[in-house]
Design goal:
single chain, 383 residues, alpha/beta, Rossmann fold, six-stranded parallel sheet, four-stranded parallel sheet, 14 helices, 12 strands, disordered N terminus
């Protein structure tokens, strides 16, 4: 009996402990569940909204949200505004990698050039970057060698590998129709920069080099100069051709003959301007004025004149082209033609982003007139 009682007592004790442990486990389980639920709610409150959240709250499909994000024209304004409000209310930020995958393009704009004028390239970069400001696009710069037999193959590989959204082509390679055709084939947007009409307005930013140089040369003629030399730009550049044509037309209008001796080759570099200036200033009689096809070479002409003891502008007038910072920083300050390169860069970026980002109104502009800038490097010829 006692044994049984002892057994029963032990059994009751064991049962009591079991119930106690079971209750504790249940309490702890509920406690963990409540804590997990709180954490889940907190996580939900702090989790980044997704495109699915935007679509659900706006009552549209993910594809419609994607079209709003990518500024597709295939939407009515009411839907666009409703989705955009949900995006703003949620603070939804599109994933750039996902967008790039959807567009099959990276958010990169390429600047492709073979141009020895470093200042011109820098100014174009500034304009493009200003045009890309407040967008998710970035710029990459790719110099090339237009004389290379593999240039087209190299650019094909570059465009395919980088999956660029668009490119800006600087002269002289912008004048290569095969390169424009390559961009079309690969589905890469492009804008060509030139000194004349190279393409339709959606693919072109152009200046009026011929007219601007004709005006600058006519100004020298009005000041009394008739023996005027020219430092040309590099062969193969449409800008060099247009500028020389404007120079020659101004002389022809004034019935002034241009002997070959007054034409000196240049390459848009300071060093080539030194060689050209020495050639022209060795002439007897030497020119009373020199037009250089860019400011770098015009600065070289002034440098050589000073070395020779030739006063500018008293003994030699000099005119350049571009209106780069060097034009205002040398002495005397250079009379030149202002090339609106930064504005052209901004417009090129706007054209590439048309329908995607930025203000489309600027994208229609394709022609950018250059303006003549009067400074102290021109005077009437000395007697």
């Amino acid at each position: 009996m006692e044994t049984g009682v002892i057994y029963l007592a032990r059994s009751n004790s064991a049962i009591s402990r079991s119930e106690e442990e079971s209750g504790l486990k249940g309490f702890m389980t509920k406690e963990r569940s409540a804590r997990a639920e709180d954490e889940a709610q907190a996580s939900a409150r702090t989790a980044k909204p997704t495109i699915n959240d935007v679509a659900r709250l706006a009552g549209v499909s993910k594809k419609t949200v994607s079209r709003v994000i990518n500024r597709s024209p295939l939407l009515n304004e009411e839907t666009r505004e409703r989705v955009q409000k949900v995006i703003e209310d949620l603070g939804y930020v599109p994933n750039p990698q996902a967008r790039a995958l959807a567009l099959r393009r990276n958010f990169l704009i390429g600047l492709i050039h073979d141009n020895p004028n470093a200042q011109m390239v820098l100014n174009m970069q500034q304009g493009i970057l200003e045009g890309l400001h407040d967008t998710e696009f970035a710029m990459v710069v790719r110099p090339v060698d237009r004389n290379s037999a593999t240039m087209m193959d190299d650019l094909r590989e570059f465009l395919e590998r980088q999956r660029l959204f668009g490119v800006v082509l600087l002269p002289p390679i912008s004048e290569n129709d095969a390169l424009a055709d390559l961009c079309k084939e690969l589905g890469v947007r492009y804008v060509r920069m030139g000194s004349a009409e190279l393409d339709d307005s959606d693919h072109l930013v152009a200046s009026n080099d011929h007219d601007a140089v004709q005006e600058a040369t006519a100004y020298l003629i009005r000041r009394g100069h008739r023996r005027i030399g020219i430092v040309e730009g590099p062969s193969g550049f449409r800008s060099a051709k247009e500028r020389r044509r404007g120079f020659e037309d101004a002389l022809a209008d004034a019935q002034i003959h241009l002997p070959r001796s007054l034409i000196a080759d240049g390459n848009y570099t300071f060093e080539s301007g030194i060689a050209a200036a020495n050639k022209l200033l060795d002439l007897n009689p030497r020119p009373t004025a020199i037009f250089a096809c860019n400011d770098e070479m015009a600065a070289a002409v002034i440098f050589v004149a000073r070395e020779r003891g030739i006063a500018v502008p008293q003994d030699l007038s000099v005119v350049g082209f571009d209106d780069t910072p060097i034009a205002a920083h040398i002495w005397p300050p250079l009379t030149t033609v202002r090339w609106p390169i930064v504005s052209m860069g901004r417009a090129a970026a706007a054209k590439l982003l048309k329908g995607v980002a930025g203000d489309d109104s600027a994208a229609a502009e394709a022609r950018f007139p250059s303006t003549f800038v009067h400074r102290q490097s021109v005077a009437p010829p000395s007697t």
